[in-house]
Amino acid sequence: MAQRSPVPKFGNWDNGENVPYTAYFNKARQGRNAAKMINPNDPEENPNMFSDSSSSVQGPTSRFGAERGEPVEQVAGRSRHQQQRSREDGHLWQFTDSPATHDNFGASSESPHHRPVGRGVNSGETRRKPARPNGGPEHGVERSPLHRHARVSTRDGGVSSHSLDGKPSHDSSHGTPGRYRLKPETRGDETEIHKYVGPSLSSSDAPVSILLINWGCHRDLRKVLNLGPAAHVFVVDSHRPIHLHNLSDQNDRVVVLYTRDDEHQTDLAYDFDVPALANACDLNSDDEADEELDSEDENDSESEEEGDGGGSRKRRKVSEDNNTDPVQVFRKLKREYYHMGTFHGKPSGCLMYDLSHTLRKNTNELLWLACVSLTDQFVHQRLTDERYQAGVMELEQHINSSGNLESVTLVTLKDGTKIRAPNASKIAYEDEPRLMLLQEWTLFDSMLCSSYIATRLKTWSDNGIKKLKLLLARMGFALVDCQQKFQYMNLEVKRKMKDEFDRFLPEYGLTDFYYRSFLRLHGYRSRVSAADVVYGVTALLESFVTTDSSCASKQFGVAYDALSLSNLDKLKAGMQHAIKIQRAILRQGSTAITKSGCIRSGRKFRWVKLEDSVDTKLLGYPQALTKFCYFLMDALREKGARMKPLLCACLSQEASKVLIVGVSGKPRLGAVQGNAFGIAFRNAAEEIGVEFFHELFESSWIVLDAAAVNSFMVRLTEKL
Q1: Exposed end of the chain (fewer CB within 10 Å): N or C?
Q2: Which family does it belong to (predicted)?
């Protein structure tokens, strides 16, 4: 048997010289800074690394940091911070930045002409990426799980993990550098996107992917973004109608997350095949000119209807069988689709969760965000009660199958005592009263200001307050208890609330006071409802004081952080701001209803103008003004007024600018018309020749010069 060669001593492994191994280290340190070196694996020298026993996220993060030349102490501290936030907060980056996620996405979603970077499904080890200069990755765009270069864009304020130049855009950056970039778009400016997806991007370059969340369906993205051959846009948007060019099979640059089953469940009813209509479109045609022509034809048809007393409506809606010209049939169907008005499909958060569930990447955090997105549409009256109930039933099934059911966990202490220990965090569902921010308010104030009760009891008047106090007395609730913060209110009152409300509220016409809602429970510490999260986050989004994009992006970052259970202080701050907004709605609503001539009525709609300098600072935002419009419509309905769409004008945060919002009422199942103010707003503003801004989150929002409001309303009255 051959004798193996002896193992050399520590030191020189190439020959048999007995050189101490420390001599090589001392030689390597010559010429370097005399900074203190620490051993990152020693718990005494680097305690941050060992403060948590769970360190699965730490390794990759430290590797990425070391590649950028960061000190070991900084890498370890940052890795621990990201690990703790990923475990407790459960941000969306848990879904996108886990090693398993990169493996699957790299294998399934990568371009066939480009090998994925890092460890793939079939690869045995992770290839080390070369260090990059501080200027950022190639092309200035960071890595994505879907493609090598990607950019995630959101509308109406946002948070950026890294700005377009590779630097953090605000203090709170989310996500791991080198994976994806979250960039908000607030003013409809697509010039930044052009730098990465425009014609200058050749087909030989690595593919660039853009994910548009809750924006983009209504625009011809292929034309607006001027997409290059290596660029792809993925759209997850609940706004309807969808631009037909985005759905066409000829358009391989834009992919809309869209299923026919979801569209069949929308509130508005239409009996034509939208994908087939999209495939009949010519992508190279001047679609905007066609839409303008269609708009003129529609206006002419409406004028004929008015002159004929409605008889031309039957003539205009001719069946396809009687029309032999396919071009005319196509134009007619396209005109009907675009002029249905705006409405909403399945919430974007629910679509994203369905995608993660299909990929088996669903987590409790993503499920909670889906619950919040569905509740957002319900709170802001973007879907019918029937569709909301269907969505609730679907999410309840996911909650039950995800291990969120109530379970008794017994823990035995050292002395043998058994105690009940709650789960760290879980999602539950239960019937919740239509009382706004009850957990952060008092029962009396919540009933006084919530739109559901305030509009029915008319709590802005002395008689309405008397009714409210009488109702509480009949239920046996002491006024002193009801005026305490709900968190510290009498437990006996809390226990009896549901039974007493079910007993007495139907006498006041409040028959649907309770609705199915979702709760996030975090041990014994917190109990947050999805509706409260919607109120708080919406208030944070609309609390910027200036209109520049940096301020709006900062507020988006604050709102993004507020979605996490570890940032309840930010969420509670948003809830308190939402309470101020609701009080302003009650004040201005009572003034508009009781003051004669404040609400002007036209043939097709009503409109009101807010001029209070104090409350306009709270209500001069699109979503807050929309809530005010719905409050007025509910109050007018309770007074017996005929239902009409309502417009509200309010001073904007910009100097000498006015924000105008139009609502057509709560969606009704089987309706044939949505919110028709979008096209009417643009046409009226163009015809009077005034400068306007119409690229807001909803097409029924528009910003005009303050001096042009009256002429705009006159022209709008003539068109509608």
Answers
A1: N
A2: Belongs to the CDC45 family.
Residue 172 CA to its chain's centroid (Å): 18
Amino acid 79: pLDDT: 44
* Residue in 429, 436, 431, 434 with CA at minimum distance from that of residue 518: 429
Q: Which CATH code is given to the segment(s) 598-719? A: 3.10.310
Task: Report the pLDDT value the prediction gives residue 690, as an integer from 0 to 100.
Answer: 87
3 state DSSP class of 206: coil
DSSP 228: -
Kindly give, in sequence order, each residue whose CB lies less than 8 Å from that of residue 375, ignoring residues fewer than 6 positions away: 517, 518, 530, 531, 533, 534
Q: Give the pLDDT confidence of 234-257 residue by residue, as tens digits.
A: 999 999 999 999 999 999 889 998
Beta strands in 475-513 (DSSP E): none
**pTM: predicted TM-score of the whole model, two decimal places:** 0.72
Q: Tokens standing for 474?
A: 């009949």
Query: For residues 194-229, b (16+ Cβ closer than 10 Å) or e, as one string?
Result: bebbbeebeeebbbbbbbbbbbbbbbbbbeebebbe
Which residue, among 253, 161, 256, has the nearest Cα to 215 in the 3D structure? 256
Edge-to-edge strands of the sheet including 231-236?
182-185, 149-155, 208-213, 231-236, 254-256
DSSP 622-687: HHHHHHHHHHHHHHHHHTTPPP--EEEEEE-SSTTEEEEEEE--S--TTBS--BTHHHHHHHHHHH
Structure token pair of residue 392: 């609730």
Burial of 437 (0-12, 13-18, 19+ CB in 10 A): buried
| Number of CB atoms found within 10 A of residue 665's CB | 17
Phi-psi region of 523 (alpha: psi -120 to 50; beta: other; left: phi over 0): left
User: Are 183 and 152 contacting, i.e. CB atoms less than 8 angstroms apart?
Assistant: yes
Express each pLDDT in 325-361 by its tens digit: 788 888 889 999 998 899 999 999 999 999 999 999 9
Single-letter code of the amino acid located at 286: D
CA atoms within a 13 Å half-sphere pointing along the CA-CB vector of 403: 6
Closest CA to 703 of 711, 693, 691, 688: 693
**Alpha helices in 269-412, H assignment, sequence order:** 274-279, 287-308, 311-316, 326-338, 348-358, 364-379, 385-401
Q: How far is CA 394 from CA 138, 236, 364, 387, 516, in A?
A: 42, 19, 15, 11, 12
Nearest to 634 by CA among 381, 461, 437: 381
Instruction: Report the relative pairing of strands 182-185 and 231-236 from DSSP bridges.
Output: unpaired
Instruction: Tell me the torsion sign for CA atoms 132, 138, 141, 147.
Output: negative
User: What count of Cα atoms within 13 Å lies in the side-chain half-sphere of residue 237?
Assistant: 29
Measured between alpha carbons, how far is 286 from 344 in angstroms, rounded to an integer?
Answer: 26
CB 504 within 8 A of CB 467: no
Tokens of 499: 């039974």
Q: Which residues of the chain have pLDDT under 70?
A: 1-179, 185-192, 195-196, 198-205, 285-324, 404-411, 420-424, 523-525, 545-549
Q: What is the 3-state secondary structure (H, E, C) of 300-340?
A: HHHHHHHHHCCHHHHHHCCCHHHCCCHHHHHHHHHHHHHCC
Q: Where are the domains of the chain?
A: 21-88, 96-121+134-258, 287-339, 598-719
